[in-house]
Amino acid sequence: MTGAAGFTTIDFDRPGKQTGFVNIPHSPHDDAWGVTRIPLCVISNGKGPTVIIEGGNHGDEYEGPITICELIRDLDPKEIQGRLILLPTINVHAVMAGRRTSPVDGLNFNRTFPGDPKGTITQQISAYMTREIFPRGDAFLDLHSGGSSLDILPSAIVEPTDNPDLLRRNIAAALAFDAPLAVVISNHGDTRTATAAACHAGLVTVGTEMGGGGTVSLEGLAICRRGVRNVLAHLGVLPQAKKPEPRPDRRILDLAGNKAHVYATMDGVFEPSHPNGQKVKAGEEAGRIHCLWDPTRPPDLLHYQADGILYGRRQPGRVKPGNCCLVVASLYEGDLS
């Protein structure tokens, strides 16, 4: 495979465990012939599927990178059948800075696919994923949480696709993850995300949201550690130690387009009306925005536009017009067959 920016110290086809880097040529003011080094591990043994696991897509989301780093250290090649391509900090500059976006070029990695091998550093990394990593894979796990701006209920994410067979396999893999919730998220139909690009390449695709707030969620990390191994067992890469018990209240939820989101209407401080997980109804008061520097001004009232449960809530109190304050997940009405 050619045409992608970057080169690697890893032989993708060699059995065993290899750790190294993807190197993206990077020539800033203070380093004429330098590289951006993205940690990479390949673990291969026997015959089986190739599963790509990515963390650090956004640099302020930590449960996924921790889980992948543990797999790199702990997994013996003899434990698996197939191949794992492990990328714990794909957006490495953002991870080191603890930021959602890259401090090098200001871009959101998850809105740059399929990338550009002649573009900025972030675009070159997504081009390398598109051209060199995805073609080697059968399945893709993209491990997210809510980052600094959102606190989201721990959940496995289903990437929608027009391919009904792939959608069925995506749903099955998301349910195998065995998070408390499984949610279909289309990102308003945006095709520039890593999971959309993976589906376009024909990979079985699972995402996650594991808490957020720019911290490490103990609950989210425990779910992520267990869920990744559940999916690897589901795909046949790891042995199935114990099949998870079916959840009696298992439902698949959906973010119902624009109505799922409640946006800030003014500059101020947001006061939510409900905790995450609360059942809510369209038209019900969702929260208020206070203008603390003008005490004569009454707060703006915000209202839900959809029935469902409160799935995500803005973490910082300070808001500006257009900030996402709340996210409502509703019952998925698509075909599950």
What would you say this structure looks like, in words?
The structure is a single chain. The chain is of the alpha+beta class and 337 residues long. The protein is 20% helix and 31% strand. It contains six helices and 18 strands. It has a five-stranded mixed beta barrel. Strands 15-14-12-17 form a four-stranded antiparallel β-sheet, with no helix packed on it. Helix 1 packs across helix 6 and helix 4 (164-177) packs across helix 6 (218-234).
Q: How is the secondary structure organized here?
A:
Blueprint: E1 7-8, E2 16-26, E3 34-45, E4 50-54, H1 63-74, E5 82-87, H2 92-97, H3 121-133, E6 139-144, E7 150-158, H4 164-177, E8 181-184, H5 194-200, E9 204-212, H6 218-234, E10 252-254, E11 261-263, E12 268-272, E13 279-280, E14 285-290, E15 300-303, E16 308-314, E17 318-319, E18 324-331
Parallel strand pairs: 4-5, 4-6, 6-9, 7-8, 8-10
Antiparallel strand pairs: 1-2, 2-3, 3-5, 7-9, 7-16, 10-18, 11-18, 12-14, 12-17, 13-16, 14-15, 16-18
Helix pairs in contact: 1-6, 4-6
